[in-house]
Design a protein that fits this description.
41% helix, 3-stranded antiparallel β-sheet, 2 domains, 11 helices
Length: 335
């Protein structure tokens, strides 16, 4: 083989081995982390992760047969993946009080009854009295929908809440969240594994919005009005509740990448665009920029430049001023 051709072949071979080693390392890392977070015997999680990770990292270091090494790593990963995918979500755990019940709904003609409509009475973020109410609204009174975007640190990551305007019957806020057990807190890393169940919280804005503006430290909330028509809002609203009813019978895992607050909203909104292509956008994942995405698509009301619209949409000061008032929802819209 000519020297130049041999050199190219050698570099390609080295590159291929480098890519294979990286793939092997990533597969071992994911499986090890899955065992650490999700192994069914809590006391054995660390041991299971250490044994698996040590064993297969040793294979990477010791083995000289690159094909066999890659094959063993893939087979071991697929075994862990098959086990991980078989883990069942549950609605029967020792839940924190604010997620102890799941919302569900019944439709009777124009009237819709929401059960387990949450309306917590907060004294602090962690000191509260949960109230689970029954709320009836008329679908014919649905006027449109608003979107709240909540930031708690990074401008790239946020939590969206969709709220439906029923006029004199009030607002129905929908928040897709992790359903945490007693003693659990949110972890971004754990959110990629089967650690939290998913929950659809259906609530009063004085609960799910006021919690973020008035009680949680460092959370900044923006309220945007959308151009959704009453018919579009109705389709999205009913689709939300249909999914809430489904999860009451068939619980699901939360996943920070594939089954989270924003991916679910995108799925519901897609129902209003039957027959039309739904455009994928990277800001569905990095949802701190979702308001910018909606603005560019023409989904938000207001003819101001985006920076000015966002500035005017900030509601923390007025939410704190109105606090527990019965007209909380009306006041936060007076900006």
């Amino acid at each position: 083989m000519p020297t130049a051709a041999y050199g190219r072949w050698s570099r390609s071979r080295m590159l291929g081995r480098g890519v294979a080693c990286l793939a092997e390392f990533l597969l071992i890392s994911w499986a090890t982390t899955a065992l650490f977070f999700d192994f069914p015997i809590a006391a054995a999680r660390l041991a299971a992760a250490v044994i698996y990770g040590s064993l297969f990292l040793s294979v990477l270091v010791i083995s000289r047969d690159h094909r066999r090494k890659l094959g063993v790593t893939i087979v071991a990963f697929l075994c862990v993946l098959a086990w991980w995918l078989s883990l069942p979500a549950s609605n029967s755990r020792n839940w924190q009080p604010d997620v102890a019940k799941t919302a569900w709904a019944e439709v009777h003609g124009d009237n819709l009854t929401i059960h387990n409509f949450r309306n917590c009475d907060y004294r602090t973020e962690t000191d509260y009295t949960p109230h689970w109410e029954t709320k009836t609204v008329s679908l014919s009174q649905l006027r449109g929908l608003d979107v709240f975007i909540t930031y708690w640190g990074s401008p790239w990551i946020a939590h969206p809440i969709v709220s439906f305007d029923f006029g004199d019957q009030g607002y129905v806020a929908m928040s897709v969240e992790t359903r945490k057990e007693v003693g659990e807190s949110y972890s971004a890393i754990r959110g990629f594994f089967r650690y939290y169940e998913l929950i659809y919280i259906v609530s009063d804005e004085r609960d799910v919005v006021r919690l973020r503006t008035n009680f949680r430290n460092g959370e900044e909330v923006y309220l945007y009005h959308t151009r959704a028509t009453p018919e579009q809002a109705r389709i999205i609203f009913l689709h939300y509740l249909h999914r809430a009813n489904e999860m009451r019978e068939h619980p699901e895992w939360y996943n920070a990448l594939t089954n989270n607050c924003t991916t679910n909203i995108a799925h519901h909104v897609a129902q209003t665009r039957a027959g039309k292509e739904v455009r994928w956008d990277w800001r569905i994942l990095l949802n701190g920029k979702a308001d910018e995405m909606m603005y560019e698509r023409g989904d938000l009301l207001g003819d101001l430049p985006f920076a000015e619209l966002k500035k005017n949409s900030y509601i923390n000061p007025i939410a704190r001023a109105t606090d527990v008032a019965a007209d909380f929802s009306t006041n936060i819209r007076k900006r």
